Amino acid sequence: MRVLISLLAMLALPTVAMASTEATEMLELTHHWVGYAAIAVFVIAYAFVIFEEQLHLPKSKPVMISAGIIWILIAIAYSSNGLTHAVKEGIQHNFLEYAELFFFLLVAMTYINAMMERGVFEALRNWLVERGFSYRQLFWLTGILAFFISPVADNLTTALIMCAVVLTVGKNEPKFVAIACINIVVGANAGGAFSPFGDITTLMVWQKGVVHFEEFFVLFIPSVVNFVVPAAIMHFAIPHGTPEKAATLKYASGRIMKHGGLSIIFLFVLTIVTAVSFHNFFHIPPVYGMMFGLGYLKLFGYYLSRRSMSWKRNAENPPVGSADPYEFDVFAKIAQSEWDTLFFFYGVILSVGGLGFIGYLAMASEAVYVGLGPTTANILVGFASSIVDNIPVMFAVLTMQPEMDLTQWLLVTLTAGVGGSMLSIGSAAGVALMGQARGKYTFFSHLKWSPVIMLGYFASIWAHFLING
């Protein structure tokens, strides 16, 4: 995104031009003080996002302020020219895009939180810990599971679960923890690139309609290549031997998974099927299918509440420390969603949408996609994603709507998804694991293997053109 902003700044000549066209009621603000101020506001806001860890300032706050200021500046310019309807339509268009993304993610996050509360992921973790795998086996197992779970669950949750396994069994082997965490980040990001549900960027592309649901899966082989190439090289740096068997977690009832865990997994899969069916067969936005699927969980929550009431009546003298295995609150799971992330999306979409409304994204599209060509531009998108979050980068591309065929749209979907693996700060999974495995998995331990990950990045692009070109 820094590259994009720098390009915009260079293109903005120090002249003031404001002209309206009656047909569209749009003003030319790219060379006006309003446009320059909007760029400055967004750059400052995103600087705060980049240094979130150092400032301890949640990333949603600066971009939400940025969104408000940018649209206020636009409104001032348009109001002074007696044009208000275009601004209203511009805000409504961007807000509708955000609302669809918001409710889709809210349902997905609610299901993930419900599965975590039922102990689904802890059961998987314990299964891995108890089997007594060697370090090298765990390296591949956690990476492969991250690759295949992230297309359904989000890559952040997937990475955190696998990292918990690595930290449990590798507490005495920091070198193993560092390399295994890198492998998990690469695997989670690669796995999310070939599924509409695997990453926010793929979801945005699917909801925009530029790539259909079934077309994403042609990226499976390139995604596998992106994961396997660096993993095969890092494999030789993993220490030999088998870790000591670690203690596993059990609930008071003696079961790691609470009642209803498997049922919620089934309902989540059914919800995804519903969303896809709504979109493919009825041409209804997939978010409506997801909200319909939330109804499945709420009905199941009602069933659990009835079972809970029955358990409390029958357990007059429950054992000391025992907990109600049926107690479940859907609204508590909704409240546990990543609200900072959801509001961050609001700030990004409205801010970038405002810059697009001013005209900067059309200017950038002309300079980058026409000037450099779509292949070079889409490869650079991956590098931009390794520096900043891939969400504003992909939303900018979708707003530009450059003239590209399906192969190029799939390419940018791939590069935006896997490009973040090149640096630990390039994806939510990497940032989260630096906090979870603090002192063992760091920015510099990841940077050491960046050339290998970059090799996988270019190998996946080659595989994409070889298979889908």
Strand-helix topology:
Blueprint: H1 2-11, E1 20-21, E2 26-27, H2 33-50, H3 52-55, H4 60-79, H5 85-117, H6 120-130, H7 135-149, H8 155-169, H9 174-192, H10 200-208, H11 220-234, H12 261-281, H13 286-314, H14 330-335, H15 339-358, H16 360-370, H17 374-387, H18 390-400, H19 406-418, H20 428-436, H21 443-447, H22 450-468
Antiparallel strand pairs: 1-2
Helix pairs in contact: 1-16, 2-4, 2-15, 4-15, 5-12, 5-13, 5-15, 6-8, 7-8, 7-9, 8-9, 8-20, 9-11, 10-18, 11-22, 12-13, 15-18, 16-18, 17-18, 17-19, 18-19, 19-22
Briefly summarize what is shown.
This protein has 469 residues and is mainly α. It is built from 22 helices and two strands.
Radius of gyration: 24 Å
Helix content: 55-70%
Sheet with the most strands, sense and barrel status: 2 strands, antiparallel
**Strand content of the residues, in percent?**
under 5%
Order of helices and strands: HEEHHHHHHHHHHHHHHHHHHHHH
Number of helices: 22
Placed side by side, the strands forming the largest sheet appear as: 1-2
Quick one: overall form?
globular
Structural class: mainly alpha
Low-pLDDT ranges: 1-23
Overall average pLDDT? 82
Number of β-strand runs = 2
